[in-house]
Design goal:
Largest sheet: 4 strands, parallel
Order of helices and strands: EHEHEHEHH
Radius of gyration: 12 Å
Oligomer: single chain
């Protein structure tokens, strides 16, 4: 299974840490993962290369705007899961919004 996920936070730093944890988890689970962490100012340039967008809790207030601009499946990572890096729960969020294929 392949997953293409774009992580967005205020500056891209905290999601960068989470991205590394997600890469490790995906490798352990046999998931092919293409993932990138970017700040709010950079997402428009790269979002179309991904299938879903996850927002850090600190930019949850931008959800409607990002949905409108990107027209992509999107979720806000639960604050606790984000804070502790609970990748198993975060990947459940990904699966819930991931586009279903025929």
């Amino acid at each position: 299974m392949e997953r293409k996920i774009l992580l967005i936070c205020a500056g891209g730093m905290s999601t960068g840490i989470l991205m590394k944890k997600m890469e490790k988890y995906a490798a352990e689970q046999g998931i092919t993962l293409q993932i990138e962490a970017v700040g709010m100012s950079a997402y428009e340039d790269v979002c179309k290369s991904y299938d879903v967008i996850l927002l850090g809790p600190q930019v949850a207030y931008k959800k409607a705007e990002i949905e409108q601009v990107s027209q992509m499946p999107l979720a806000v990572i639960a604050a606790y899961d984000y804070a502790v890096g609970n990748v198993a729960n975060i990947m459940k969020q990904v699966e819930a919004i991931y586009p279903k294929t025929q």
